[in-house]
Each structure stands twice: as structure tokens, then as C-alpha cells.
Amino acid sequence: MKTTISQVHKHVGEEVTIGAWLANKRSSGKIAFLQLRDGTGFMQGVVVKSDVEEEIFTLSKNITQESSLWVTGTVKEDSRSPFGYELQVSGLELIHEAVDYPITPKEHGPEFLLDHRHLWLRSKKQHAVMKIRNEIIRSTYEFFNDRGFTKIDPPILTGSSAEGTTELFHTKYFDEDAYLSQSGQLYMEAAAMAFNKVFSFGPTFRAEKSKTRRHLIEFWMIEPEMAFVDHEESLEYQEQYVSHVVQSVLSNCKLELHALERDVSKLETVKAPFPRITYDEAITFLKEQGFDDIEWGDDFGAPHETAIAEAHEKPVFITHFPAHIKAFYMKPDPNREEVVLAADLIAPEGYGEIIGGSQRIDDLELMKQRYEEHELTDDAYKWYMELREYGSVPHSGFGLGLERTVAWIAGVEHVRETIPFPRLLNRLYP
Hints:
Layout: E1 15-28, E2 31-37, E3 42-48, H1 54-62, E4 68-77, E5 85-96, H2 110-115, H3 117-120, H4 124-146, E6 150-151, E7 157-158, E8 170-173, E9 176-180, H5 185-195, E10 197-205, E11 218-227, H6 231-252, H7 254-259, H8 265-268, E12 276-278, H9 279-288, H10 302-310, E13 316-319, E14 332-333, E15 336-340, E16 342-347, E17 352-359, H11 364-373, H12 378-389, E18 395-401, H13 402-410
Parallel strand pairs: 3-5, 6-10, 12-13
Antiparallel strand pairs: 1-2, 1-4, 2-3, 4-5, 7-9, 8-9, 10-11, 11-18, 13-16, 14-15, 16-17, 17-18
């Protein structure tokens, strides 16, 4: 019976055949231990010399790393293995012999591994990270679909910036200027006026010349937008969403978290509600911690966010930022106009901001004022203004960066390991 590693638990005591690659092997005289992978998981195959034909045992001893083969054997329970099963091999058939596979079990530098990213993805830890990424995506759809959201796909080519930044990738759109999208948010606001609650999931681009472990040039964003929802309600959606994703990974990616040696006790506490502090309180706290360089009105850097995160076990919201350091579309606090109804969600353990969100301006006259202050042209943003002219309502939204979230949940050091083929400042290959 042909099956996959992920399905062998259904075939204990039965003989099965699996198409696999050899990840590694070791032998001790009359027994060969084959570390097999088939894309769905990793499993050990045990070849006992006395139980197989001589040519099968010889092949098991000589087969090279990453060669592909058909493996036939009986599924056995194995309490010593985190996977719980092993294959008592009775037959091997070589499909293709790999010669001089470049990524060996020895240590390799990050540049070498990134040059061979197309092969590095096969390794157990990289496989685990991608499976966790997949679970976050799956549970994201589950969360929003179960709550009546409609998925809407914003354009990737746009005629303007979403936040007035200059860090955009420029291209020619026939005879017009165009840019790769840095956010689908403005378009999601239009969609929310048509569908009430919407979300997008897609690639975004920042031409930011950053080399930090938190930054990618191309990354993926989940961007919900909700009509008739205020700032406080939006925060509740955010903490429920993040809680749902983390608990889904804990439930469905136990083997992957084990492979990454992730301390799951730090994830088990991630359940709504999350703590909240205001920007004012954050400034006071940072000064008390010895950050003499920070003043009211400054944006937070990575060291500031890490210090705030270390004071909390769960992700923490920082709310009510100064208006001048946030985007033009954020709604001012009606009780204090110099701050906006916005929040950043800071992940624990030094992973930084994973969500930025706000209540949006719904007042036409105030939005006109913002256009003038930020020198936004009617040509590029006329349609966005019209959302306030025709049936404007209170509405809120947020954006979650997928790769930073994967890095935090998986416990990996750098976001370059959280996307299949990272695009970095000096890397467009492979």
C-alpha cells in the first residue's frame, strides 16, 4: 500500500511503500538507520541485514544523502521517537542517486545556506518553520471565515503610496508611474464599505535599505478592515486573532515546535486579553529603565520595544501614539487631538511589532485637512476621499506581518528563515 509519512499512524503493523529522500543515515555493523523524508514529515527506516536480501542491505549502506527512493516496510510504533513510529524496511528501490549534495550535516554559514535556499528548505528545521507558517495561514483563514469576513484581494500595482512614504519600488505602467504595493489597507477600506468585514492576505514591498533581523524587502501581510467597528473593538479582534493562531500552532505543530526546540511554555500563556499601555506610559517606563535618549514624540526603536515586551509575559499593546509619527488616515482621540486611536502589538521575547492598527478618519472635513497637511494629490487619492463623501461610517483595521509572526512563534532568530525565498537588501537569488 502506497502512503506518506504523515499517514503511517493509520497503518501500524501493515506493510507500506513510501516515496522518500534520504536525509541522513548511520549504521552499526548489521543494522542501517535511514533518516527518511517525503515532504510530509520525517521518519526513521531500520534495515536489518538478516531480514533483507544482500543487495538491499548493500544499497542501504551505500545510498547517498538526498538520493530519492521507494521504501517498503512494516510500520512499527516507537515510543523513543518524537514522531512515534518507525519503518522496519524490507525493500529499497533507488529512483535517483544524488552525488555530492552541497549541504552536509556539518555547520554552514548563512550566506552559503541562502545561496542554496532551494535545497536548504529540505532540512528538518526549515521544513518545520514552513509548516508552522502554513498553519498560521490556515488558522488565519479559519478565524476570519468563522467570523463572517470576506477575503478581498487588493492590487499589487498602485498609483500611490498608502502611507505617504518614499520607500517604494517604482515602475512604469505603460505611460504612467506605478509602485509595488506597501499595503493594501486603503483598498480594504473601500472593500469594507461594500462588504462590512473584510481581510486580505498578500505580498507587500518596502524599498527600505535595512539589514536588521526583522526586515525583508518582500513580505506578506494579513490586513483586516471592519465597518462600524471602533478602536477598542478592533483591539479585541486583534488579541483574539493572535491567540487563535498561537493556540492552533500549539495544537497542530507539536513535532515542528519540538524540532525547533521551541519553549512552548512561553506560547501557552498567549491567550486574550492582552495587556495595554499608552504611549505616554511607555515613555515613562522607558525613562525609568534608563533610556534617556527617548522623548515624547519620538518613535520607538527595537531596543525600546524589547524593553517594553520584557516587562510582560504576553504580547502587549502600545496605544494612543502622537499623531505626527503615524499615518495621515488615523483618527485623532476626540479627548486629546494630538494623539491618535492607534495601537502597535509588540510580541514577547524581543520579536518587535507584529501588528499596527488604528481607527480610521471618517470625517470628510478632517480628511480634507489631512490631505493638505500631507500634500496628497486629488489625482491619486480622489477615490479614497469619496469613501468619506458617500455613506461614511466609523471603521477600523490592522495589519499583521506574517514573517515576524512566524519568527516569534517558531522561535527563529531572523525573518529570512520564515519565508521560502527571502528577498533581502543584497539578495535576489535564488
